[in-house]
Amino acid sequence: MQIANEAPASYRSSSHRPGPVTLITTAWRDVMSRRRLIRYLVAADIKKKGSDTLLGNLWWLLDPLMAMAVYVFVMSVIFQRSQPDFALYLLAAVIPFKWFTQSISDAVGSVVRNERLIKQIQFPKIVLPISGSASEVVSFAFGMLLLLGLSIITAGGAHLSLMLLWVPVIAVVQFVLILGLSFLVSAFTVFYRDVGIVIGHLMRLLFFMSPILWSFDAGTGRGDQLRTAVGETGYQLLSLNPVAILLSAYRHVIYGTVAETPEGELTWLPPTAPDTGQLLVLFVISIALLVIGTWFFKRLEPAFAKVL
To answer: How far apart are CA 30 and CA 122, in angstroms?
Structure first.
């Protein structure tokens, strides 16, 4: 490895800056040529998370279980929410939401945390947010195993169906979205540390704006109260939230849907395929965001060592 005194030679001239296509193709070559480094960083991150606690990587299962227990108690006992198999209903949205928020939160400091490394060694910094996002996939996978086990023991396995084959497809769309956002926030944070504070508040707001404790499918409950509070236009805008689209898709294929009976009670309907039109549009938008994020990251990358 070379000691980096400043930016790579191809970026040092202010009179000739690489164009967007050059930056994106350079990023692709950097990633492809540093696959072993990415695998090493992912493995190191997974090992570090497991070694920092007494129970190690068991927390990948215990954390969503404890979160589920809290929410089920609050909604079922305190607010008297009567809904079939509420634990599975909740986890089907909580686990992918946790993957999203944890990945974005980790991406915020992925470059800044490696300040000393960036100042001393010349390497493509884009591998840092990539490795952070990839390591969170492992946690998500364990959460999906937990969901599968819960589906088997809940309602005699009535929630199990071929619709579960949609989960990897939805996960790919979510990973592309996460990666694009990770490039943007990790590069911004190098120059504006306030980004981390803002992201933290936005993630908390996103929790309540996304269909986790409520659903777009239910005619009653929190979703109906939210519709009344924000109006029909605001409610439709909430349904176009990318995270809301993903969580609704997961819930449809894992849990099913919620409907209202003529008696005004909530009932369960079997799993159905997600809205493929919405998923396709979101996938295209996520790819566009990934391209923009890659260009933005590579455009600012030469200044990282100087700013840090």
So the answer is: 12
Domain ranges of the chain: 18-307
pLDDT in tens, 68-110: 777 777 666 655 566 778 888 888 999 999 999 999 999 998 8
**What pTM did the predictor assign?**
0.86
CA distance 92 to 260: 20
β partners of residue 268: 258
Query: CA–CA distance from 251 to each of 127, 148, 298 (Å)?
Result: 32, 13, 36
Distance CA 91, CA 108 (A): 25
C-alpha distances out from residue 195 to 74, 104, 204, 243, 295, Å: 32, 11, 14, 20, 19
**Residue whose token pair is 């008696």:** 263
Q: What's the confidence (pLDDT) of residue 79? A: 53
Q: CA separation (Å) from 66 to 59, 73, 91?
A: 10, 11, 11
Give the Cα separation of 303 and 8 in Å (integer): 10
Predicted confidence (pLDDT) per residue in 18-29, tens digit = 888 888 888 889
Sign of the CA dihedral running 239, 242, 244, 250: positive
Q: Residue 29 burial (CB < 10 Å; 0-12/13-18/19+)? A: exposed
* DSSP alpha helix (H) spans, 73-166: 86-108, 115-120, 127-153
Residue 54 has a pLDDT of 61
All residue ranges of the chain with pLDDT < 50 are: 1-15, 220
Residue tagged 């634990």 (tokens): 87
Looking from the CA of 243 toward its CB, the CA atoms found within 13 Å total: 23
- pLDDT on residue 13: 43
Q: What are the beta bridge partners of residue 257? A: 269
